[in-house]
Amino acid sequence: PMSMSISIDDISLANDLVFSEVMRQPENVKPFLEAVLEKKVAEITYIERQQDMKDGVNLHGVRLDVALADADETRYDIEMQTGHAYDLERRIRFYQSSIDRRTLEPAESYRQLRESYIIFVCTDDYYGRGLALYKRKSVIDGAEDIVYDDGSHAYILNAQFTEPNLSESALEFLRYINAKKNKLSFDVSGSEYLTRIDRAVEDIKSDKGKVERLMTLAAKLKDERWIGRQEGAHDAHVGMVKKLLARDMSLEEIADICSLDLDEVKKIAEEG
What we know:
Blueprint (H helix, E strand, L loop, with lengths): L15 H7 L3 H12 L6 E4 L5 H4 L9 E5 L4 E7 L6 H16 L12 E7 L10 E3 L3 E2 L2 E5 L4 E7 L9 H14 L10 H14 L2 H39 L4 H8 L3 H10 L1
Parallel strand pairs: 3-4, 4-8
Antiparallel strand pairs: 1-2, 2-3, 5-8, 6-7
């Protein structure tokens, strides 16, 4: 149902597929984490590699997040969110729980749950308040001086920031993302890190095989999202038709109200 959804011009760090490919390299992700968390991060000991682009083409429901751990056994999950984001809070909760399930051995106590950071890099301002970093903080209602610390952290970064509440190098990274999303030129010569990131993206661009895989994967993801949306819409229609049937409306009236084909309404009615 969809045509190719990525052109060579779209291959930049602001593209979620490219971001996850570049950030799968420990030397690219570690400086990013240090800039955002404003602290030293222990050596990266593991990065989940099964979402590599080479096996991406036949992956069903591919996840674009980069899941990693460092030598202190802190877990990180990073994802690029291009365009308008929805339900980030619940997605963060889901990522959080999947990290916890993966890391806690059955015999271990809850105390051994590792610190974890879920980080979303958004091209758009999710909360519309202009902050470069929206950082979740849990407190007790009515006794806000009590910090509720469960070792989990959620960071939502905003490439369209107006309030620079992050380290300068993290802000520079966000400015770079913003420029790339808007196809503006950006001078990386002042930053060794961004120069390296930029080169990593150029390497992807100049690798014909990689570009092809990227485009196939992008088209496939778009199809999957499209199919998912259709399924969602279908479920909503079914619910609505059933409600109206319960009110003894005629099939014609229901078809009219739901803007559906009469045949489709009949089919739903027969399924009961």
